[in-house]
Amino acid sequence: MIVLGIDCGSEITGYGVVDGSAGKLRFVDAGAIRPPAREPLPEKLHTIFSKLKEIIASNRPECVAIENVFYAVNAKSALKLGHVRGVAMLAASSAGVPVAEYAPLAIKSSVVGYGRAEKSQVQSMVARLLDLKSAPEPPDVADALAIAICHIHTAATLKKQKAIAKS
User: Fold this and answer.
1) If you write DSSP's letter for every residue of 11-34 in order, what string do you get?
2) For residue 50, which of 88, 18, 77 has the smallest C-alpha distance?
3) Which fold has domain 2-166?
């Protein structure tokens, strides 16, 4: 299973592609989409959408995983995040790729084993799980890879539960 994890943000949108097909996690691709800071929001959204479409086309994920909306300190930030999430979902659905959503606590628990882990802990565990020489930078990239890993772990658990229920 190849999964594209997306860490949505209007300033930096991280993405990470992980292959969990062979029962082992394998790094495929990762990076950060950084629209020009002075661009108006509609242009930023277009840039993010276009880049995500390219990433989906080149990596051909079976699923896109993103973080659920979480509590934001201010409404303006929450709205911008919502716009970027919508663009990410649109990029996936327009390519015929299903979207899964995960709570931040579930993502951190799946990767680090602790739902309130610090960003540096997520970066370290992602590097360890994917056998990377260094922690992914910026942290948004590590978060995106963590979201993809969370989906792979969750899908494997659900598959095992279905197998047990059938027997």
Assistant:
1) S-EEEEEEE-TTSS-EEEEEEEE-
2) 88
3) Nucleotidyltransferase; domain 5 (3.30.420)
Could you give the CA distance from residue 159 to residue 15 in angstroms, rounded to a whole number?
25
Please list the active-site residues.
7, 67, 140
Q: Which helix (H) or strand (E) holds 25?
A: none
Q: Could you report the per-residue pLDDT of 90-130, keeping only the tens digit for each?
A: 999 999 999 999 999 999 999 998 878 888 899 999 999 99
Domain residue ranges in the chain = 2-166
Question: Rg of the chain over CA atoms, in angstroms?
Answer: 16
Q: What are phi and psi of 95, to 5 degrees?
A: -95, 5
pLDDT at 118: 85
Tokens 């610090």 correspond to what residue?
Answer: 118
Q: Count Cα atoms within 13 angstroms, Cβ side, for 146.
A: 37
Helix (H) or strand (E) holding 109: helix 104-111
Q: Considering Cα of 32, then 67, then 4, then 58, what sign does the dihedral take?
A: negative
Euclidean distance between CA atoms 86 and 10, whole angstroms:
12
Q: Identify the residue whose tokens are 């994920």.
A: 61
164 versus 126: the higher-pLDDT residue is 126
